[in-house]
Amino acid sequence: MPTGYKRASYGVEVSPDLEFNFLMEQTTLSFGYIYSYKYYQNRLIGSSGNDDNTQDIHAGLTHAFNERYNLSLRDSYVIGQEPDFLRAGNTFTTFQRYSGNNSRNYGTIDFSAQMTPDFTLDLGYANTWTSYSADEPFDTTTYQPSNAGLLNMLDNVVHLDGRYQLEPQTIGIVGFQFRQTDFTAGQQIGTYDSGQPVMSDTRDARSYYGYIGVDHNFQPDLTGSIRAGGRYTDFYNNPANQNEASPYAMASLKYTYLPESYLVVGGSYDYSPSSVAPAPNSNGQINLSAQSGTIFASVVHRIMPKLYGSLQAQYQNTTYYGGLDNGQDANFFLVGLNLTYKFTPNFSAEVGYNYDNLNSQVQGSYDRNRVYIGITGSY
After folding, report:
1. Single pTM value for the model
2. What ranges do the domains of the chain cover?
3. Which 3 state secondary structure label does DSSP give 147?
4. CA distance 280 to 45
5. Contacts for 130 with CB less than 8 Å, ≥ 6 apart
6. Cβ distance 6 to 368 under 8 Å?
7. pLDDT mean over 158-180
8. Topology at the third CATH level for domain 11-377
9. d(CA 248, CA 200)
């Protein structure tokens, strides 16, 4: 949202949620569907309507073949407008709300094989697919691409980790990861100084990761994990040879300090697809991607037997790579406060506040305040 544009609104949300869990001797199967309808008294800026509709369909399967071999599958399909619903993982690719039926599917497959009493191999695959409804042709007057041209993407990640039991509470990890990101719209998203079009797939990328790490149980209620290494990215469709090497890191810590009360903190640093329209420089280089550093924290505390409080916060710094926007950055901060009172196991009331703030050298700046109250019933 551009600086200076503000609009307050009352609203209402109705969100039915259906969840199934099937527990068998060696297999667990889950399935769920969440529908959220939000109606705003004042029309949203940049929207043709007063409402939002979000759907979330998710499923999971875990199976233990025996004591040594385990398989896990997860999938989540979302249709919505808000970036926090459309992202996969902790990193925001785009910070903006987009009208329309925008879709995101995120699926994972993980297989674990205990080769010896001390050594385990983990093989995993993750797939993220995004599709945005605004797919109009490139505007040659404003030089603005469509949301689909910039953001439609197929992201595939394969990893192989070797895990060795160094100590009873410590596991050492050596891993390799391959990631391929394809921008799938097949549309023009910019223009070189020569007049030639910049196409969506010019930003396609292959990334090769190598890392080491540790998982450690400090005590039964305190666990931590860290990965650190490097990444090399080949933008194989880009004629300006803008390949890139950078660090890679990921860490998390969880502390359960009281029953039903815990703290989670973590962070990551990695390649992130860019949502910025490419602006070529005089050398023909364009904005290809971004480096995103993220830190987050979440606290859930049982204040009284039926009263729970939670605090969530996240900060992300995104630095853009290539073209006229090279080195420009965006700082995004969000925080959420919530109080929930559980009258019964199936009926509760809650009140909360969410604050978002973006300060970007490329995409402009905005802040957003949301206050809500509600009731939840489950049967």
Report:
1. 0.87
2. 11-377
3. helix
4. 30
5. 86, 102, 103, 104, 151, 152, 153
6. no
7. 97
8. Porin (2.40.160)
9. 25
